[in-house]
Amino acid sequence: MPTINQLLKKCRKPKKRYSRTRILGGCPQRKGICVKVYITKPKKPNSAERKIAKIKLFNGKALRASIPGQGHTLQEHAIVMVRAARVRDIPGMQYKLIRGKYDFHFKESFERKQRRSKFSIPKSKENK
User: Fold this and answer.
1) Following DSSP, what letter does each residue of 51-69 receive, concatenated?
2) Where are the domains of the chain?
3) Model confidence over 105-115: pLDDT tens digits?
């Protein structure tokens, strides 16, 4: 505990807050352009091929984002929307792309009946 004299000389300073999604600049989503689309492997107990895109945001910053869902047709120079979402089995992956926005279409290899919102898939007529 500081004494009163110490507090008079130097007042208390608030703790600095740490943000994992500092690249987005305080925004919930950011628009960017694909620089490279590639595949990587997850860490130890899991084994698969995770699809990843290197994105250059329109604010000038660059990041790596995971491509969610099953199947995609992303290429270089595709315009995409990025959101902050952690991918647990890929180290350092803090971002995901949003399906159904700009050049990243929501067409997948199967029909989603539940949990469509994160993939921007509209409700089909038979499910209503």
Assistant:
1) EEEEEEETTS-EEEEE--S
2) 30-119
3) 877 777 878 87
- Enclosing H/E stretch for 79: strand 79-84
Q: 3-state DSSP call for residue 42? A: coil
Encoded tokens for 94: 């803090």
Compute the distance between CA of residue 66 and CA of residue 95 in angstroms, rounded to an integer. 6
Q: Identity (one letter) of the amino acid at 1?
A: M
C-alpha closest to that of 89 among 29, 34, 49: 49
Contacts of 106 (CB under 8 A, 6+ apart): 69, 99, 100, 119, 120, 121
Model confidence pLDDT, tens digit, residues 79-95: 999 999 999 999 989 99
CATH class of the structural domain 30-119: mainly beta
d(CA 108, CA 68): 10
Structure tokens at 111: 């029909």
Token representation of residue 51: 């699809």
Instruction: Look at residue 122 and tell me whether its pLDDT is greater than 80.
Output: no
Single-letter code of the amino acid located at 6: Q
CB atoms within 10 A of CB 104: 22
